[in-house]
Design a protein that fits this description.
Structural class: alpha+beta
Helix content: 40-55%
Distance between the termini: 96 Å
Strand order of the largest sheet: 5-4-9
Radius of gyration: 29 Å
Number of helices: 10
Shape: elongated
Strand content: 5-15%
């Protein structure tokens, strides 16, 4: 009896993997991986690149967090402190910090001191994905280790140790400040706020990959071709398969006719169509479901805030946008901003700079109920209104003062 070989293969889809930190034996740092052992930060970056809805949410929210920049309500009363704050925290740095904070769940800043370590002279963005926390001592994370690519860490590599803010010695003129919100069950790192929808980012990526493959492989498994003139050896089978794919595969070969020459009708090649019932409806459901769950994970109040048109009527969009913008700003954006301003205030306090900081909102002033704002300070926080023309002159003067102090 001839043995019938089964060539059917099964593909196991990867299961949902939650992030976890892992202490490495004989190493001073703590790894941050998912259950499959993949670097968690890199995994988030890949989902950002591969999922259009996820990328749209992260870009939109990070832009809302930064708004129109960092300001202070008491800048007119403390012009010198305000000028020093503006020189330390440049817009390019803060934009990168807010993007990392939203994308990776935490962000890092490099704090540079003067030689005597009596004043902070510079604050720079530090890519969070390149840092790993040192094992805690006395309940504190006293340093972070830097490596440009932790996924490709070699045994011979020696990551650089950088003290965390406030834990360096007198000779350590560079420290790193990590902005990390509290998350129950996580001490060394904080998972991204949209962690619960990460698997739907994978689903959206796989749906798009399926459609791309479907188009590129023009003669995909929607056709079953039988050659009824005997079973050739494996080499001949592979050659025939390559020839068929070469001639009919790909979008440029779509619509070509298949011409066969047969000795008699009984031995002709048969072509059977394989149809997946309602395939378009199933994949449309997957696409819609993944998009909805991703926006839910990011707490998007309304998709029109991100420029995504929904099914509401045109007449309702203006009022919906107004209400959604107010809710989004108060419930989602400001908690991010509060954590960032608290971190910035802690760094500024080292230089004896104390300001009432806030990020100027992107929310249109038409959406703000100005009649309900009692104080000028509150009005400034809500609208970002400032005497910007007068302040520009003060900044130029104070820059010269600040540089002179640094030289002394």
């Amino acid at each position: 009896m001839e043995e019938n070989k089964n060539n059917v293969r099964f593909v196991n889809l990867s299961s949902y993997a939650a992030p976890e930190f892992k202490e490495v034996y004989n190493k001073d740092w703590v790894l941050y991986q998912d259950e499959s052992g993949e670097d968690y930060f890199q995994s988030l970056i890949e989902r950002y690149l591969d999922s259009p809805t996820n990328a749209c949410c992260i870009n939109g929210i990070s832009e809302m967090i930064y708004g129109r920049g960092l300001e202070a309500t008491d800048s007119e009363m403390k012009p010198e402190m305000y000028a020093q704050m503006k020189l330390l925290f440049k817009p390019s740095c803060l934009r990168k910090v807010t993007n990392d904070y939203k994308l990776l769940g935490q962000a890092a800043m490099q704090v540079v001191y003067n030689k005597t370590k009596t004043k902070i002279t510079q604050v720079l963005h530090f890519p969070m994905e390149t840092l790993r926390a040192e094992k805690a001592k006395d309940g504190k994370i006293k340093a972070y280790y830097y490596h440009p690519n932790w996924s490709n860490l070699k045994p011979s590599d020696e990551p650089k140790r950088i003290p965390s803010f406030g834990n360096g010695g007198k000779s350590d003129v560079i420290e790193v400040y990590v902005v990390k919100p509290y998350r129950a069950g996580f001490y060394y790192y904080a998972p991204a706020d949209y962690q619960s929808c990460v698997q739907y980012c994978d689903l959206e990526r796989e749906v798009s990959n399926y459609h791309i493959s479907n188009i590129q492989n023009g003669i995909q498994p929607s056709l079953f071709i039988n050659f009824n003139n005997g079973v050739p050896d494996e080499e001949a089978q592979q050659l025939i398969e390559n020839k068929v794919n070469e001639k009919f595969g790909g979008t440029s070969n779509a619509g070509r006719a298949i011409i066969a020459f047969n000795e008699d009708p009984e031995r002709k090649a048969t072509i059977e169509a394989i149809h997946l019932p309602d395939a378009h409806a199933q994949y449309q459901f997957y696409a819609d479901e993944s998009r909805e769950k991703i926006m839910l994970g990011h707490r998007i109040v309304s998709p029109i805030l991100l420029g995504i048109k929904d099914n509401t009527g045109f007449g309702n969009n203006a009022e919906e946008l107004r209400t959604a913008s107010v809710i989004m700003d108060n419930m989602v954006i400001r908690p991010f901003q509060n954590i960032l301003t608290e971190a910035i205030a802690e760094i500024l306090a080292f230089n004896d700079i104390y300001l009432d900081l806030y990020f100027v909102t992107l929310q249109p002033i038409e959406f703000t109920e100005l009649d309900n704002i009692a104080t000028q300070v509150r009005r400034e926080e809500e609208t970002g209104e400032k005497l910007s023309e007068q302040k520009t002159g003060w900044i130029e003067q104070l820059k010269a003062i600040f540089k002179k102090q640094e030289q002394e």
